[in-house]
Amino acid sequence: MDLIVAVDNNWAIGNKGELLVSIPEDHKFFRNITMGGVVILGRKTLSTFPNGLPLKGRDNIILSKNKSYKVDGAKVVNSKDELLTVLKDYKEREIFVIGGGSIYEMLLPYCRYAYVTKINYSYEADTYFPNLDKLENWKLIEESEEHTYFSIEYFYYKYENEKPLEI
Length: 167
Hints:
Elements: E1 2-7, E2 12-15, E3 18-19, H1 24-34, E4 38-42, H2 43-47, E5 59-63, E6 74-77, H3 80-87, E7 95-99, H4 101-107, E8 113-119, E9 127-128, E10 138-143, E11 147-149, E12 152-161
Parallel strand pairs: 1-7, 1-8, 4-5, 4-7, 5-6
Antiparallel strand pairs: 2-3, 2-9, 8-12, 10-12, 11-12
């Protein structure tokens, strides 16, 4: 299992239920990485998608504590234990954690790779991702050249967890 996230200089990922910034090239990168795979996300993250619908071309697994919550075109699970059991059915597929904050935090120890878009700016934010540069098992293994979108500078980083937990 891997994860994909966009963060600012403070490892912030969102504010008031929204992304910090929208960069079309980063959306394309996200789509290319996750297409054909399995994506794991929370109910609140799903609500930010166009029309609140699951992502096309991927199997969507939604985490929600609400046992009556249903989503057409997605599988809904109600706990980490249930998710880990369901993921055994997807062993041969690429699996990506795509947010939000509490889902990232819960599943970070199980992830092997983290694809991080680092935006060279500090936004007002209320949701953060753990700083991988300060976590013992995580090492930066790839770094892109600088990219720009208007005045926004950003980089693509790939981190590896040297000791991921087994699913």
